[in-house]
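ok so i was messing around last nite and threw this chain in just to see what happens. nothing serious, just curious
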Amino acid sequence: MNWRIAMKNLGEHAIVIGASMGGLLAARALSDFYTTVTVLERDAFPAADTPRKGVPQGHHTHGLLSRGSAVLEEFFPGYNREVVAQSGGLLGDAANDVTWIGHNVTLANGKSDLIGLLASRPVLEGHLRRRLLGLPNVHAIGNCNVLGLASDPTRTSVTGVRTLVEGKLEETVDADLVVDATGRGSSSVAWLEELSYQPPANEKVEIGIGYMTRTYRRRPTDLDGKLGIVVAASAPNWRNGAMLAQEGDSWIISAGGFLGDDAPDNDQGFLAYLATLPTMEIHDVVARAEPLSGYRRYRYASNLRRRYEKLARFPENYLVFGDAICSFNPVYGQGMTVAALEALTLQQCLRAGSNDLARRFFRAAAKIVDIPWDIAVGNDLRHPQVKGARPPMRRFINWYIGKLHLAATRDTTLATAFLKVVNLMISPRSLLSPAIVWRVWRGNWRSALSVSSSAIESTRHTTRKLS
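result:
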């Protein structure tokens, strides 16, 4: 059977700039519609699944959310099992095999269909790159710097890119479509200005997140056999932490805080920092585990969104994709899944043809980005020192989610509903359905009743002692 059956051919050549997760997924979507797809990457491709310079987060904690895992499986059937079988990745139930702590309380575990994939970023990317390059019409060029865009004389259409490959002269490579998937540091704004286009408006929320990461030997008895624990930042110290199982019987552990509240890069200081989290579980594993790496720090200044969908003019045959559109606080683990969803959307847009592609794609991508942006920014704005607008609805939602967490300490249905939103499986609006609101109210009423009963019993006990 022809692997491109029933797909339109929209052109001879498409170029994707950037071979990170977003670029690889964009190339997969394009491969169904263009005779040849070329991925250009400024890094050399590593021989093994090891971190590379162009992915500074490659040393740090990663996991593929359930929705992202499902989309990768749709694009590359067998991908998840391949990562497990060949590299030692782990598939697990996000609601049952991982402990989630938010608003300083622990959500109840319960079985669900939220299957996520745990593996290091280099392994996830390496398997994806090999599967992509296994397609007959996709190839990649490493050590390739893209210097700018080529256009027609009217500057209304992009016709290719200007490249400089290591050891060669500068050349122009023609293409019917160019996609910028170079991430947060994208040069698209500058390239568009060179063609006399207005830059997109930016939305930015400064958070000053920094975290320290180290890998350790994992023992079967750690966390009573669970595959991880995720601690979301909350008052009073607003520190976060994550410990996730990885290939090679290892843990990857990250901890950090907002606005320069960094974890120390020494054993005593790191342990003391972990002890300030609302659980001692990560601390206790680190205290006895064998280190497998040194300490590595990562800093992330701000949530950043570029509003390409609001531009009145944009050149034909050019798109911006993934983190180059929007990048979020990485502690929420949304980036790879958002890129996967954008790749699905790109595929759907291409099925309708290449006419007016940029406008259609940017509007559709904006709807995808809205949800994780609201999740990340809304949660970050709970921190009183993070600057940003806090309209009444945002304040209400943050209050309500706190109440949901309290009720979800005993209610697995509530916990799973919340985690489905976190995993981008369902809309956050689902948490305001009458059935969920009822469970939140009931759970908080029972908690209040329990506290009240405990206080009354304590008073009676004291009265009996005094008498």
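not much to say yet. The chain has a mean pLDDT of 92.
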